[in-house]
From TrEMBL:
Belongs to the bacterial two-domain DSD family. It comes from Pigmentiphaga litoralis. This is 3-dehydroshikimate dehydratase. GO terms for molecular function: 3-dehydroshikimate dehydratase activity; dioxygenase activity; metal ion binding. Mg(2+) binds at residues 461, 540, 617. The keyword Cell membrane does not apply. InterPro entries: DSD, Glyas_Bleomycin-R_OHBP_Dase, Glyas_Fos-R_dOase_dom, IolE/XylAMocC-like, VOC_core, Xyl_isomerase-like_sf, Xyl_isomerase-like_TIM-brl. Residues 302-422, 458-608 form the VOC domain.
Length: 654
């Protein structure tokens, strides 16, 4: 596949954009006209700069308000076009994008538009340049690809074809199915963009909120599949107008861009393979050879461990907190200052080893935080190979011969993800790396009292606090590299601003992640991001249990603190639900929060923040509840804010 990206999709000067695009392995660019108009060099210099970086200038765009115009206006546009054609020859650019007219002066008769498109194609042909006509979703008369195609077909000129842009079709909820019936060689260029589903003016939506395929909610796969079925063999390009991307360092954007295309190709490739269409396309166009095929999506069977980066002091205080939550010290690393805490299936690694990756993260974050996640999978090397194919850097560390081989990769923001071997006959990572203690051996003395069984059974979810410009990166990374799928997404109110909470999980729900972002600088999420040195980090860890009432009663009895919840919350809960008042009374006395959906119910409770950073949550899922109680986050945030406020008033009064 020839992979391309519009220069409008990235931040930086044109030279910086080209460098970043080339470094990510693209074959070409769409030159966005303002980028050239403001470029300090000549067309020839730009052509050389692009080719020195191994990039072709595939498209010059956009050319506006051409078709359906009164004759005098059209003549002026032709003169403007002649100028652009000469320029494009110097740029070595073969195709001009003409977008559908938005001018109130334009008229809608297809014949007039076709005649004018024919005429510009005739002029372009003298330069051996092709005209691609694109329907803008907010065009005055032409908004859909069928209407654009009608005019292209009527004009019937060898140098006139269609440009398709997934955003314009999918934003209007138009059906892409008929694209498959178009002649593929009359589609001159393909632009792909995804976007979150928003209820807003389509022009604003298009100019500010597009994102890369896999980051939004449009069905880009189906769209691309239809284009390939037409027999299209041209470039696969990204054209993303996004306010966030305009400020994000462009190397990161370019890597995300390439990851998005590779993932899109692989998804559509397997769709074509399963639908049986691939044989026909293979014979016609060898499309299969172009569509990227990474190693298979990893089967994930849970979070094998979460690793904290701490110093010696925090290793002790975190250990005490974990012990108060029912964890026992289950092992000491054979060669490093690293402890393993366990409860049920949960394994928490507390790493205070100097001169290690953990200590670097600790320094960078200026305090304790999460530095790694271990994901269990039967085929760790294959998972790591997929990650590498999809542009994640490997992070393998030197190990002693007796340490287990656990491949690791770098996630957005720098945290590591390890792929931990699981399955019959594979040693657990702890047996290989740790001198393992059992709860009944001496190491269990940390646990305050012997308990019949674990209070907390498994890790329910990992919640991250991310800077706003990392959410899209994380969503794409989770989907493409880890094979997770987007789930529940919510907006919740912090007393100091809004927080947007998105989630991803695997099909068995053994791996769940929540990603919180806030554009306010004063929310708890923003605080966590700042505390992590701006790169994002752990927001909280949630542990699942089978009986939250029993667990919380026991934990409270042994002195564990939880965030207090207002009595008004429980009165409101009684008023808005048909829950048994006795149950609500129990929740009230223990401080347990509640959420429900038609699928099931959710009980949960939060601890205060540890070292002013992350916190823990205890949850119980009932039935098929698949969310995260996000709206109750507001109860926690209000409670924390009021406690802080009260503390500062006390301090003043004293
Ligand atoms: O927003 C625009 O004007 C615009 C221009 C060119 C495109 O290809 C497009 O999709 C949108
Ligand atoms: Mg477009």
């Amino acid at each position: 596949m020839h992979r391309s990206i519009a220069t409008v999709s990235m931040s930086g000067t044109l030279r910086q954009k080209i460098e970043a695009i080339a470094a990510a392995g693209f074959d070409g660019i769409e030159l966005f006209e303002p980028d050239f108009v403001h470029f300090s060099g000549s067309a020839l210099a730009l052509q050389r700069m692009a080719s020195d970086h191994g990039l072709r200038i595939d498209l010059y765009q956009p050319f506006r308000d051409l078709e359906g115009m009164p004759t005098a206006h059209f003549r002026r546009s032709l003169a403007r076009a002649e100028h652009k054609f000469a320029l494009m020859k110097e740029l070595g650019c073969p195709t001009l994008l003409v977008c559908s007219n938005t001018s109130p002066l334009s008229t809608g008769e297809p014949e007039r538009a076709a005649a004018q498109l024919y005429e510009i194609a005739e002029r372009a042909a003298r330069y051996d340049i092709r005209i691609g006509y694109e329907a803008l979703a907010w065009g005055r008369h032409v908004r859909r690809y069928r209407d654009a195609w009608k005019r292209v077909a009527l004009a019937n000129h060898s140098h006139l074809g269609l440009i398709l842009d997934s955003f314009h079709t999918l934003s209007l909820q138009d059906d892409p199915t008929d694209i498959a019936t178009l002649p593929g060689d009359k589609i001159f260029f393909l632009q792909m963009a995804d976007a979150p589903q928003l209820q807003m003016d389509v022009l604003q939506w298009a100019r500010h909120y597009r994102n890369f395929p896999g980051q939004g909610q449009l069905d880009c796969e189906y769209f691309f599949e239809q284009v390939l079925k037409s027999g299209y063999e041209g470039p696969l390009s990204l054209e993303i107008f996004n306010d966030q991307f305009r400020e994000t360092p462009n190397r990161r954007t370019a890597t995300d861009a390439m990851r998005s295309l590779l993932w899109l190709e692989s998804r559509v490739r397997s769709r074509l393979e399963t639908s049986g269409d691939h044989d026909r396309l293979w014979r016609q166009t060898a499309t299969q050879a172009w569509l990227f095929k990474p190693p298979a999506v990893p089967v994930l069977n849970g979070v094998a461990f979460v690793e904290f980066a701490v110093d010696t002091a925090h290793a002790a205080t975190l250990g005490t907190l974990l012990a108060s939550l029912g964890f026992h010290l289950a092992g000491q690393h054979r060669s490093k200052d690293v402890q393993l805490y366990a409860q049920g299936d949960i394994r928490l690694v507390v790493n205070a080893e100097p001169d290690s990756f953990a200590s670097q993260r600790f320094e960078r974050q200026g305090g304790p935080g999460m530095c790694a996640i271990g994901l269990g999978t039967p085929l760790p090397d294959q998972a790591a190979a997929r990650a590498s194919a999809l542009l994640s850097a490997a992070a393998d560390t030197p190990r002693r011969p007796d340490e287990l081989h656990i491949p690791a990769i770098v996630s957005p923001g720098g945290m590591r993800i390890h792929f931990v071997p699981t399955g019959a006959g594979t040693p657990g990572f702890e047996a290989a790396d740790f001198d393992v203690a059992t709860p009944s051996s001496g190491a269990a003395t940390l646990s305050r009292s012997p308990r019949p069984g674990p209070l907390l059974k498994s890790l329910d979810h990992i919640a991250l606090a991310l800077p706003p410009d990392q959410l899209d990166s994380w969503v794409l990374f989770s989907r493409a590299v880890l094979g997770l799928e987007p789930g529940d997404s919510q907006e919740l109110a912090d007393p100091y601003g809004l927080v947007q909470s998105s989630s991803v999980c695997n099909d068995t729900r053994s791996v769940r992640m929540v990603m919180n972002v806030s554009s306010s600088r004063r929310t708890g999420v923003a605080h966590a991001v700042n505390a992590s040195g701006g790169s994002g980090g752990l927001h909280h860890l949630a542990f699942a249990c089978d009986d939250i009432f029993a667990a919380v009663a026991q934990l409270r009895a042994s002195g564990t603190q939880f965030v207090p919840i207002s009595p008004n919350y429980y009165e409101d809960l009684l008023a808005r639900s048909d829950l048994d008042p006795a149950l609500v009374g129990k929740m009230h006395s223990l401080g347990i929060l509640f959420d429900q959906t038609p699928l099931g119910a959710f009980f949960h409770i939060y601890t205060p923040r540890f070292a002013d950073r992350f916190f823990f949550e205890v949850v119980q899922r009932v039935g098929g509840y698949d969310g995260y109680g996000a709206l109750n986050g507001a109860a926690r945030l209000a409670s924390e804010a009021q406690a802080a406020d009260a503390a500062s008033r006390d301090a003043v009064a004293r």
